[in-house]
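Quick one:
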Amino acid sequence: MTARTNAGAGEGTSTTAPAPSLDTDALIDDPDIRIIVCCGSGGVGKTTTAAALGVRAAERGRKVVVLTIDPARRLAQSMGIDSLDNVPRRVKGIEGEDAGELHAMMLDMKRTFDEIVEAHADGERARAILENPFYQSLSAGFAGTQEYMAMEKLGQLRARDEWDLIVVDTPPSRSALDFLDAPKRLGSFLDGKFIKLLMAPAKMGGRAGMKFLNVGMSMMTGTLGKLLGGQFLRDVQTFVAAMDTMFGGFRTRADATYKLLQAPGTAFLVVATPERDALREAAYFVERLAAEDMPLAGLVLNRVHGSDAARLSAEQALTAAENLEAVGIVDQTAGKAGLREPADSPAAGSAPPPDTTASHAREADSDATPEADVTADATTEVTPDVTTEELTAALLRLHAERMQMVAREQDTRDRFTALHPEVAVTAVAALPGDVHDLSGLRAIGDRLATGSPPAGAA
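Output:
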C-alpha cells in the first residue's frame, strides 16, 4: 500500500471512481485470518462492529473470541451476558446448522498486569510487586498501560491457540494510534535513564551500590523529591528492584505481539462514520498502518444515511415546498385557523361575512337528530390547524434536509476515496435505533456483508 501524506480527508472536492468493495464475509471465512483488529476514532461504532463480526463469524462456523476494551459494557448487554471480565465467556444464542462458538471478554487492565507478574516472578517477589504502592498506581492507570495490556492480552489469547478467530475492539482513546504506539512507549519507559538509574543500585549491590544510590538520589531529590515526595521515590526504587528480572520479558513480549500484528494472519479494519473529522482520522490511520507494514483489510463506514425517494432531489423538494406554502398564503380557505389573514391585512379589522352556507345547511337538515348536531359540532371543534398543503410542505422540507445530508456524506466519502483509492470500503446503513441484542448485531452483520450503501447514498 502506498502511504499518502495528505491526511485531510475533508479538504477539497473531487470526483472519483467508486472505491473497491470490502467483502467482510470472505474476510471472516478465511481460515488463514486469525486476528481482526477494529480501530478508529471514538464514537464511530468500533465495539458494535467487532461484536457483529464476531456473531456472524461464529454463525458461519468459526470459533471466535471478541476482546473489547470498551468500559461502557455495551458488548456484554448486546450479547445477553450479565457482565464481562478478563476471562472469555461463552455467548448463548448462536444459530445455524454449522455454527461454531462465540466467546466474549472485556479487558481488565490491572488484572492482566497482575497475571503477568504472577506468571513471571516467584511467589515472594510477585507478592512484593503486587503490594508495592507504585506498582498499584502504574497498573491502575499509567499512561499507555491500557493499550499495552490490550496487546498483552491479545498475545496471550493467540498463544493459547484455542480460537479460530480473535476480534479486537481497540481502546477508546483520543488517538486511534495509541494501540500501535503502546509497546514502543512502554519499552522506552523501561529503557529510560530514570529506570536505569533506579536499577543500578540493585545490580551493583553492597556499599558501592548504596554509594551509587545516594549519588543518584541526591541528583533527583532536589526536583522530584519536592514534586513527588521521598516516599514515592522509594516506592519506585523498590518496585524497579523487584521488577528487574521482568523488564526484558515485557520488551520481548511487546516485540512479539507487534510482529503478530504485522503477520499475514492479521487484518485491520478502520472504522469511521461519514463525517469529516472521523474520515480525516481514518485517513491518518490508513497511512500509519501502511508506514508500519500493518495489513489493512479496508474501511467500515458506519451509520450511512440514504432515502428510498432519492429521485426527488433536495432542490426539487424545496421548490415544491415553497410552491405549496405560496398556495396556502394566496388561496385562503374559510374555517382553516392556520390560514387566516395577517394582522396587518386590510381585511383584518373587518368582521367576516356571515356563514350563510352553514345556516342553510341547518335549515335544510332540520329533521336531524340532536346527536347528529353534537357530532357535527364536535368535529368542527377538533379540525386541525394544519392543512394538507402545509403538512406536505413540511415533509418535503424534511426530505430536502435528508437529501442534503446524503449529499454531504457522499462528498466526504468521495474525498477519502480520492486520497486512498486502494482502500476497500463497506457501508453500513444507519439503523433506526441502538443495537442492544444479538438480533441487532445480526442486522449489522448483514449490512457489513452486503457492503452497499442505503438507497440514494451512491
